[in-house]
Amino acid sequence: MKDITSEADVEQLVQAFYARATKDEQIGHFFEHTDFVKHLPRMYAFWNFILLGKEGYKGSVLEKHLHMALTKRDFERWVFLFTETILANYAGETADMAIQRAQTMAWTFATKFPEQ
Ligand code: HEM
């Protein structure tokens, strides 16, 4: 398996993640009203910045989630699906970094939300 090295890899990762997340019993419903035509380019820009150091994402990620009725358990599930997506498709330093960064951000966000 190859590592995440290009913007095409990042796009494929984001799409593979949402293929799982949108169908997921626990967190799928949060994406019911998401306009993916608008949302996907923002996710590509976000992960291109985090993983490949490409400038372009402007936003405040935590704030975009504060209005959602998320719980710590939802964040755990998000991390599980994200990690599963990476491990099924990529291997290498950047793939490992993606898992670590996702975990760190999810745990940080989760501190702002209730248990369960
Ligand atoms: C259970 C956990 C999560 C759920 C259900 C969730 C769901 C969503 C939804 C529905 C949106 C808004 C889409 C729209 O514009 O309509 C969004 C935006 C976003 N999420 Fe999450 N999210 C979760 C966790 C995370 C985590 C842990 C990260 C980062 C590692 C993340 C990164 C982002 C980014 C970058 C955006 C775009 C913000 C922007 O528009 O600038 N999300 N998320």
Quick synopsis:
The protein is mostly helical and 116 residues long. It is built from five helices and no strands.
Give the helix/strand layout.
Blueprint: H1 7-21, H2 36-52, H3 61-65, H4 72-89, H5 93-110
Helix pairs in contact: 1-2, 1-4, 2-5, 4-5
The chain binds protoporphyrin IX containing FE.
Can you put this structure into words, describing what you see?
There is one protein chain. With 116 residues, the protein is mainly α. The chain contains 5 helices and no strands. It has a single domain, classed as Globin-like (Orthogonal Bundle), CATH 1.10.490. Helix 1 crosses helix 2, helix 2 packs across helix 5 and helix 4 runs antiparallel to helix 5. The model has no long low-confidence stretch (mean pLDDT 97). Protoporphyrin IX containing FE (HEM) binds next to helix 2, helix 3, helix 4 and helix 5.
CATH architecture: Orthogonal Bundle
Bound molecules: protoporphyrin IX containing FE
Largest sheet: none
Helix content: 55-70%
Mean pLDDT over all positions: 97
Domain unit count: 1
Question: What labels would you give this structure?
Answer:
116 residues; mainly alpha; Globin-like; binds protoporphyrin IX containing FE
